[in-house]
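Below is a filled-in request sheet from our internal design queue. Each sheet records the structural input a requester submitted and the sequence that came back. We keep these sheets so that new team members can see what a complete request looks like end to end.

REQUESTER: design group, bay 2
PRIORITY: normal
MODE: inverse folding
CHAIN LENGTH: 303
BACKBONE (tokenized):
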């Protein structure tokens, strides 16, 4: 039986540098709730395939949002490279892939208010989109300023060796960074892993190839943003690192939410738990309600 309450479509995104990315569009169906006039672009975490966010995207579509998920180049459905294409880099994920996904929504679903949900890396890159000023509301989940000094002392004992020696060494030996070292994510292509290590060694974190801070359009982000962190996310998204990310968006209206698993009646959440199918629907509903209210207020203010 066809589910007419939800419409899902597999699409292909074309990037400015002529690469192709796998993406999925989730929308309210003919028997579903009315569309609420807002889109949500889901920017995934490092090495996490778009399918991981499918249940969350379906939930948002059930609340009236138009939702787009996608795989960065070199990951899952976007693993294949075009003829003559250079090896994928993490820099390209933010500079080309994310803007291409946002542009698809702008072109094919015009008139929708623009929202973003960014998981980890996906919340760091909003300012790399030339149209970042269009964002009406954004929620970042465990997104952090990745410089190693933003971790606690126990992690600082080994993180310099990880970023300066181990990651470059593993990549040189194997041509990739195995996903099992990242909590079960996909293997990272060599260029992606090298960019990531280089950024985590820099006090500026996101930097260009000359080591200069990479903030081309961050000043244009004036959206209401909620930065969410979890008390048991020590390895990937420590509280201090999430706090520091606020500095990436100097003109945004920032709200901070730091959650202990027990606050939500859960034994653990960690870096990846919020998007798992087992997350209580109430938590996704709270995010949906917050996005709708924040985006609606931003659009009314701009009108």
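RETURNED SEQUENCE:
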């Amino acid at each position: 039986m066809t589910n007419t309450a939800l419409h899902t479509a597999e699409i292909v995104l074309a990037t400015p540098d002529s690469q192709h990315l796998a993406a999925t569009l989730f929308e309210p169906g003919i028997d579903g709730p009315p569309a609420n006039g807002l889109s949500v672009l889901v920017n995934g975490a490092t090495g996490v395939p778009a399918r991981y966010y499918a249940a969350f995207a379906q939930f948002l579509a059930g609340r009236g949002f138009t939702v787009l998920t996608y795989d960065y180049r070199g990951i899952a459905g976007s693993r294949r490279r075009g003829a003559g294409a250079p090896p994928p880099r993490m820099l390209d994920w933010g500079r080309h892939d994310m803007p291409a996904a946002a542009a698809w929504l702008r072109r094919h679903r015009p008139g929708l208010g623009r929202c973003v949900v960014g998981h980890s890396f996906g919340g760091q890159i909003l300012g790399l989109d030339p149209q970042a000023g269009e964002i009406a509301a954004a929620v970042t989940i465990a997104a952090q300023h990745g410089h190693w000094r933003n971790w606690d002392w126990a992690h600082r004992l080994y993180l310099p060796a990880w970023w300066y020696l181990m990651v470059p060494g593993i990549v040189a030996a194997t041509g990739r960074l195995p996903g099992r070292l990242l909590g079960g994510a996909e293997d990272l292509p060599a260029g992606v892993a090298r960019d990531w290590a280089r950024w985590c060694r820099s006090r500026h974190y996101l930097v260009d190839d000359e080591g200069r801070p990479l903030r081309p359009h961050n000043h244009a982000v004036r959206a209401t943003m909620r930065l969410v962190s979890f008390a048991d996310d020590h390895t990937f998204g420590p509280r201090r690192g999430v706090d520091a990310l606020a500095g990436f968006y100097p003109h945004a209206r920032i709200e901070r939410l730091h959650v202990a698993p027990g606050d939500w009646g859960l034994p653990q959440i960690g870096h990846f738990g919020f998007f798992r199918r087992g997350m209580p629907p109430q938590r996704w509903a709270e995010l949906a309600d917050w996005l709708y209210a924040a985006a609606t207020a931003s659009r009314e203010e701009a009108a």
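SHEET NOTES:
- Helices lie at 54-61, 90-108, 121-124, 153-156, 159-174, 190-201, 239-245, 281-302.
- The CA atoms of residues 99 and 129 lie 5 Å apart.
FILED BY: M.R.
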